[in-house]
Amino acid sequence: MKLFKKLLALVLFFYLPFTSMAWGVLGHRIVGQIAESYLTPKAKQVIKEILGNESIAMASNWADFIKSDTAYNYLTPRHYIDLPDSLNYLQLKGYLSRDTAADAYTEMIFLIKQLKNKDLAKEKQVMYLRFLIHLVGDIHQPMHVSR
């Protein structure tokens, strides 16, 4: 009976996140769809100018789709952030203010700054916006912000 309970717990541990759509393509698309519903008309217009007819939900998966292309291997550590153990709010703010690692937090800061540049090339705008959308989804997914 004890083995059965452990086996059941293990199955539920792996099964429930997938059935709740917490990870993967669908999870990112759900986050993208929710985000899109909160955009102002002005923000929607700017995003449409960059992505064309591609929705935020569809753009949200770009960074996972290109993982198999070795040209993008440098992006791998930028999908998550590893934090020290047991930080309170003030310690977390202090840690992030000093963060210089190639991680999701520093990458989002970089992408936002670049996307504000009106002279940024169109192909960079598309890539940076897709990656920013993806990272915002990543930091809201399990295991992307952890120790």
Could you explain the architecture of this structure?
This protein is mainly α and 147 residues long. Helix content is 61%, strand content 3%. It has a two-stranded parallel ribbon with strand order 1-2. The radius of gyration is 18 Å and the shape is globular. The chain starts with a helix and ends with a strand. 17% of the residues are buried.
Properties at a glance:
globular; 147 residues; 2 strands; 8 helices; two-stranded parallel sheet; 61% helix; 3% strand; mainly alpha
Summarize the structure.
This protein has 147 residues and is mainly α.
SSE layout and pairing:
Elements: H1 2-19, H2 24-37, H3 41-51, H4 56-59, H5 62-65, E1 81-82, H6 89-98, H7 104-115, H8 122-138, E2 145-146
Parallel strand pairs: 1-2
- Arithmetic mean of pLDDT: 89
For the biggest sheet, the summary is:
2 strands, parallel
* SS strand fraction: under 5%
Q: Quaternary arrangement of the chains shown?
A: single chain
User: What is the general shape?
Assistant: globular
What percent of the residues sit in helical stretches (DSSP H or I)? 55-70%
Number of helices: 8
Find the structural class using helix and strand composition.
mainly alpha
Return residue spans where pLDDT drops below 50 for at least 5 consecutive residues. Answer: none
For the record, give the distance between the C-alpha atoms at the N and C termini, rounded to a whole number: 34 Å
**Secondary-structure element sequence?**
HHHHHEHHHE
For the secondary structure, the number of strands is 2
Radius of gyration: 18 Å
Side by side, the strands of the main sheet go: 1-2
